[in-house]
Amino acid sequence: MNKIDALLDVLSRIYQLLVLVHNSRLHGNGFLDEDPQMTRQEVKDYLGISESTYKRKVREGVLRPRKLPGGDRFYKSQLLGEYRESRRRGRV
Fold this sequence. Notes:
The chain has 2 domains: about 1-35; about 35-90, Multidrug-efflux Transporter Regulator, Chain: A, Domain 2, CATH 1.10.1660. It contains 4 helices and 3 strands; from the N terminus they run H-E-H-H-E-E-H. The chain has helices spanning about 1-25, 40-45, 50-60, 80-90; strands at about 35-40, 65-70, 70-75. Strand 2 and strand 3 form a beta hairpin. It is globular. The protein starts with a helix and ends with a helix.
């Protein structure tokens, strides 16, 4: 099971790098900016969602936090789809 978890972690990091490269090309940046990590509260504020909505989205797998000793963490690039949905719904 540890090998599978390690492989999934590596694939997740590769995906995050690909998202960064894609976003930098979309926005015309010639360089990659640091992708900031966000806490649980920052994500809720950024997306304009409540605690119960946050928990539901995590349970459904829409939001996939990194579980760290200080709490859940997200990379901002992982939240682009949800941010667009929040804007569409008028939350932010």
